[in-house]
Structure formats: C-alpha cells, structure tokens
Design brief:
alpha+beta; Peptide Deformylase; 5-stranded antiparallel beta sheet; 4-stranded mixed beta sheet; 9 strands; 24% helix; 32% strand; binds zinc ion
C-alpha cells in the first residue's frame, strides 16, 4: 500500500466532474490496490473520508471511516448517487484534507438515501443520518467539483485551525 499525494485547493482536479467507474473494472487488481491506497492515505492524514479526485484521480470513488451506530466501519462507495434528501437540516463544522487549516460551518440535510456499488461491485442502497450523512454529502460533492467552502451560506464562521482550537474546539469538527 502507499500513501498518495493529496491535491490541495487550487488544483484543477478538485473542480472537475469525476467519471463513473466501469463496473467490470471494480474487481481488478489495480483498482483494488488504488482503493487500499486511498484508505491508507485517509488514515495517514487522519481524515474520516477521502474522494478519488483528492488524490488526483477524477473517478467516482469515495472511502470513509466515520463514526456510525456500528462503530467505525470501513466504507467504500463507487459511483454513488444520493437519491433522497430528508426534510431536516443539520449544521456541522467541516474541514477538508484538501483545504489546509480551515474549518467552517455547513448546513446540510440530516438524512439521505444513497445508492451505488461497494468495492466488490455489488449494489448498495442505504439511508444515512448524522455525521455519516454529512460525510457522504461532503465526499459526493468532491465528485462534482465542489468543496465545503462552496456550501457555506455564512462565511463568517470560517475559522483558522489554531483559532478553532482556541475558541470552538468544544464544538464538534468534522474533518473530511
Ligand atoms: Zn474534502
């Protein structure tokens, strides 16, 4: 496995629309290796999610390891589509491995339904709430060339990391 270089804000790859993965490629050794490299890169950077464009590969693959009801399961989603957004919103602090040193509050639907493929190429269809729902929306945004800054409706909460630690640490930050 290898830790891959993370593309930072300003790299055009973060603004591209990612291409879907051909289902017959999913089980191939190179793609499985790439997924393992994404997981290792996310863990090395202490993130809870990573999208393939963040490692300069413009394809619809996301990996996550974020707290849910069942602990911290490893999740891989390929060609994901959010097919339903719940009516309620949740506001969370977000950060991004491609945006160094900043946190900001983002309001997003608190419940979503997602369809896609897992790392074996099998269809998945599930509902997510809370942190997982936010994490998936943040990562799916990366697949359409968006970062959390684009989703902030109030830029006055944009905070540098050392000030965040000083003033806002008691609130939960989601570093995705
Ligand atoms: Zn991100």
């Amino acid at each position: 496995m290898a830790v891959l270089k993370i593309a930072k804000l300003g790299n055009p790859v973060l603004r591209k629309i990612a291409l879907p993965v051909a289902p017959e490629e999913i089980r191939s050794r190179p793609l499985q290796q790439f997924i393992d490299d994404m997981l290792e890169t996310m863990r090395a950077a202490e993130g809870i999610g990573l999208a393939a464009p963040q490692v300069s590969r413009s394809e619809q693959i996301i990996v996550m390891e974020c707290r849910g009801e069942e602990g911290f399961p490893e999740r891989v989603l390929i060609n994901p589509t959010i097919v339903y957004y719940g009516p309620h919103q949740v506001e969370m602090w977000e950060g991004c491995l491609s945006v160094d040193g900043l946190r900001g509050k983002v309001l997003r639907p608190s419940m979503i339904r997602v369809q896609g493929l897992d790392r074996k190429g099998s269809p998945v269809d599930f509902e997510a709430t809370g942190l997982l729902a936010v994490c998936i929306q943040h990562e799916v945004d990366h697949l359409i060339g968006k970062v959390f800054l684009d989703r902030m409706t109030d830029l006055s909460t944009l905070t540098q990391l050392d000030e965040f630690d000083h003033y806002w640490r008691q609130e939960h930050a989601t570093v995705i």
